[in-house]
Design brief:
three-stranded antiparallel beta sheet, 9 helices, globular, 2 domains
Length: 298
């Protein structure tokens, strides 16, 4: 049974306005929003992915990647289908985009996924001796009803909560997430609003605003990852803008991970990022004053 969604309101004509993320989707009856995971049924918005994890694994925390939070520990990772972005280079595109077919097909897909309740996720983390739970693989914002219930149980049992996110959540959503969140890695796609629109179906400004909001929340540990894609976000100018923003607006102690791109999804015609480009990006980051710049996926 689908779970009634949070952060929306009903408007005329059996439509719903979703305020979960910065898309603020206006959703017609029997349709889903941009994420494919929330459906309007007669003026009531429902989460289609509640308690329907597509993957549950035990990972090293460094894989998130988090290098400055509980190092050398494992974390119970899980995610669902759906995403509020449509990144052309997504390595998990089968689960992030596969749900965005049509409403009937989506319901059919979800009915075949085993139900795993929040208390079972928390119990599995404890049984596996993982000191944390990571909400990852797809965008956790879009399964917020599932995430929040799991996060509350995690807190009650002494487990830490980690998000791996694109940072597009709305202000109301963040106010509910923040008290339960211990660490987050934000995937900053680059520093061009044009590229965000063209390749991700989103905007840059809300992400930057949320990054500053997170940094102002003292108990949340923040790290940032940027996938360097040849010809998309790898110019010296853009890398200087990005690293300057991190250093000046978020603090020079904010860890920044530059990750190597490999051909994937709709970008199989683009070559892998050269090691030399990653080295150049790292030097630019350090020149901006950043203390912790890392090269990943090499």
């Amino acid at each position: 049974m689908p779970k009634k969604a949070l952060f929306y309101k009903k408007i005329k004509g059996n439509k719903t306005k979703c305020y979960l993320c910065h898309h603020n989707c206006l959703i017609s009856n029997k349709k889903t929003g941009a994420c494919g995971a929330r459906m309007n049924k007669d003026g009531i918005l429902y989460s289609l992915v509640y308690a329907k994890p597509i993957s549950i694994n035990i990972d090293p925390i460094e894989k998130k990647p988090l290098y400055h939070f509980m190092p050398r520990t494992t974390t119970l990772s899980f995610g669902t289908m759906g995403c509020n972005f449509r990144c052309s280079w997504c390595q998990n595109w089968e689960i992030s985009q596969g749900i965005k077919i049509d409403a009937k097909k989506t319901t059919e897909i979800m009915s075949k996924i085993k139900t795993v309740k929040p208390k079972e996720i928390a119990k599995e983390a404890l049984n596996s001796k993982c000191p944390s739970i990571s909400y990852t693989y797809n965008e956790p914002t879009i399964f917020i009803e599932y995430a929040l219930e799991t996060m509350k149980l995690a807190k009650d049992t002494g487990l830490k909560n980690i998000w791996v996110s694109n940072g597009y959540f709305g202000s109301k959503a963040f106010k509910n997430i923040a008290p339960l969140l211990d660490a987050i890695n934000i995937d900053l796609k680059g520093f061009s609003d044009r590229a965000y629109q063209k390749y991700c179906g989103a905007r840059l400004k809300p992400v930057l605003k949320n990054l500053k909001r997170i940094k102002k929340t003292p108990h949340i540990h923040l790290e940032i990852t940027t996938l360097i894609i040849p010809g998309i976000n790898d110019s010296k100018k853009e890398l200087k803008q990005l690293t300057s923003f991190v250093a000046q607006k978020l603090g020079n102690d904010t860890p920044l991970h530059f990750s190597r791109f490999f051909p994937c999804y709709k970008m199989t015609n683009i070559p892998p990022t050269s090691p030399e480009k990653l080295e150049e990006a790292t030097k630019i980051g350090k020149s901006a004053g950043l203390k912790y710049v890392y090269k990943g996926n090499i």
